[in-house]
Design brief:
This protein has about 375 residues and is α+β, with helices and mostly antiparallel strands. Helix content is about 30%, strand content about 25%. Helix 6 runs parallel beside helix 7 and helix 7 (about 255-275) packs parallel to helix 8. The protein starts with a helix and ends with a helix.
Length: about 375
Amino acid sequence: MRLFQVVVLSLLLGFCTLLSAENIAVTPTVEEGIAWYNAADWPTEGKGWAETARPFDRIPDEFAERIPTGVRELGKNTAGLLTRFRTDADSIRVKYTLLSGNLAMFHMPATGVSGLDLYVLEEGKWCWAACTRPVNQEETGVLADGLGREMRDYLIYFPLYNGIEALSIGVAEDAEFHAVAPNPAKPIVYYGTSITQGGCCSHPGNVYTSMLSRRLGVPFINLGFSGSARMEPEMAEMIATLDPALFVIDAVPNMDAPLIRERALPFLKTLRAAHPETPILIVDGRFYANCHIKKALAAQCQGESDALREAYDAFAAESGNVYWLGHENLIGEDIDYDATMDSSHLNDLGMFRQADKLEPVIRGILSL
């Protein structure tokens, strides 16, 4: 019965999103029979702040000089951002310019680092449709074709570890095209590390925050910063300017036990002072996948976990509406140890498992 209820709820959420999605009038530039629509001409979903240096940056101008340099630079990466549109085009093209010519990493493919990911709404469910395979900093080409002239809702996820200078979506000049406003529901703000930013899944739609957004029908603001989620006071102040349905704090993999003891509780208190009633979910750090044979590493992870639990207990003693998700089976590490690509960063299986672990917790907190 529970599975049936979840399926029905998911279908209803998708149907309601489709009905409530607002069309936005945009004017294309027509070139050789292709109408190109500039994605900067309508709002981007997943942005926490409207005032940014570039249309697709994640960091607000007002905090750019106050936050750590690493965060400021990684804020140019478009992790978690997406754009929505509706078209009856048989073929969808893209033309985009990336901020960096470093298209891939040794442990993460260009499709995830720098690719665009197309999803389509089918019977109330968002389904993967296509992904670009970038080989140049500037790309123009067909993202998907042979679609038939049927009106459908689409979304495009942006690169996880690169930024976008410019993006246009192209369809045949005689095709119908409507820009669509972002999901109007209150977002979930997820603050985390390289894992939250998307390291190291194969394409942008597979980062677990995006999986959860599709499952729950709720927008996510992905504040994953590779190697740079260290709970600085300035970051707490910046994040506290947002007004989400839920804060999720998942920064342990970038911190050691002493730093957690120094910063975690003040960080949480800053959020609570600005948002007395907003729920806060604290996620324990995943243990490295090879901790089962590396006992010193396991002890280090346990020490970090204990430090975070101390901060949680102290915070929960004086503040309500705070929740804990432990590291146990967070990525299935005591099942088969196959959920990472380097013992730390998640592969697609790890992303799926972490989404599975988070989904019922978030549903319970927000009564979804």
